[in-house]
Amino acid sequence: MTQSSDKPIKKVVLAYSGGLDTSIILRWLQETYGCEVVTFTADLGQGEELAPVRGKAESLGVTEIFIEDLREEFVRDYVFPMFRANAVYEGLYLLGTSIARPLIAKRQIEIAHQVGADAVSHGATGKGNDQVRFELGYYARDPEIRIIAPWREWDLTSRDDLVRYAERHQIPIPRDKRGAPPYSTDANLLHISYEGKALEDPWVGPDEDMFTRSVAPENAPDTPQSVEVEFKAGDAVAVDGEALSPAALLTRLNELAGAHGIGRIDIVENRFVGMKSRGVYETPGGTILLQAHRAIESLCLDRGASHLKDELMPRYAELIYNGFWFSPEREMIQAAIDESQKTVEGTVRLKLYKGGIHVEGRKSPTSLYSEDHATFEADTVYDQRDAEGFIKLNALRLRLRSK
């Protein structure tokens, strides 16, 4: 058992998706702990109908059911701050699953306090990153909370074990779960991931019919499309001149990018627990957002600030990937990043074409770009002879070393 006290658990709040795994966990908690289970389902824009979740929970004897639309909070307070940092893990991964976990954990703890629960529970396995992300989030919000992680406790070790358990307890089994489902997925407004089964061999490519948020680049329109993204204080605020809320804006970018085959990656990543895993991700709107943000920063950020951000970014991305969103070091880096974003505003024009994003133009009222200084034509603001002394001073240590 993972609880830190011998006191019986009377009520637990379960992060509940309504799928097979968490439905089994719900029944297992009732049986193993003899406790009341409260379910919490977060709508983070996963694109699934959440209405049936209530019925599934009620059929399993749950009377306190929380289904909450957190899409705006997710994008405003988690996705956008992360994109101010241009955060990318190991050069490619835009952290779509990682950034959702702290919000779920925070709200789950708040509900636990609201209903007087003794513990919280999640459906993450003992091999993955999510168990770490959830539980670091729980402890950051409530240091004394008791956590039940069924995958680290029960004797259900395979998909077949889960199916047999579900059949014994009359838990509805999705038709495609009776066999070996091809992929394990996680989705929210920022991305959708595919892992496991057919993808466990990194040499085997994904099936085209697996993808749900983008067309194949070769099937994308033969005509490119231009899109303009407007920024204010480092956050995107409008698309093609239309002001949009954070969630609505990311939804719009997802639609635009997905139609042009943008945002697919296939990577082998290093998990925090030590093993490598292969994952395929679709992050269409986020891929546009990253390129557009870097483009507007190229006008607005001083060289020193820009380069320092790039030095901090891998550490920041790793903190999010490993589950340390609520850590003091992440907050310190965030404060520095947010300070740099105060003057990051303007508009970026991009061309979308067959899986590619091409920056066509950028403009900003706070631009540091000076055409007078950069021109190759005659100017009156830059004395080219000054460069000689600059070069000699920078070359001094090299000349001394050469001697």
The CATH homologous superfamily of the largest domain is called Argininosuccinate synthetase, chain A, domain 2
Anisotropy-based shape: elongated
Helix/strand-derived class?
alpha/beta
Could you tell me the strand content as a percent range?
Answer: 15-25%
Largest sheet, in brief, is: 5 strands, parallel
- Strand tally, please? 14
Tally of domains:
2
Unreliable sequence segments:
none
Give the % helix. Answer: 25-40%
**Rg measurement, Å:** 25 Å
- Average of pLDDT: 93
Strand order of the largest sheet: 3-2-1-4-5
**What is the CATH C-level name of the largest domain?**
Alpha Beta
Helix-strand pattern: EHEHEHHEHEHEEEEEHEEHHHEEHH
Please report the number of helical segments: 12
Write structural notes for this entry.
The chain has 403 residues and is α/β, with parallel strands linked by helices. The protein has 2 domains: 11-71 and 95-181, HUPs (Rossmann fold, 3-Layer(aba) Sandwich); 187-363, Argininosuccinate synthetase, chain A, domain 2. It contains 12 helices and 14 strands. It has helices at residues 20-33, 51-59, 71-84, 101-115, 130-141, 159-168, 246-259, 284-300, 303-322, 328-340, 371-374, 386-402, and strands at residues 11-15, 36-43, 65-69, 119-121, 146-148, 184-187, 192-195, 225-232, 235-239, 242-243, 264-270, 276-282, 346-353, 356-363. A 5-stranded parallel sheet has the order 3-2-1-4-5, sandwiched between helices. A hairpin with a 2-residue loop joins strand 9 and strand 10. Helix 1 crosses helix 6 (159-168). The radius of gyration is 25 Å and the shape is elongated. The relative contact order is 0.13. The mean pLDDT is 93.
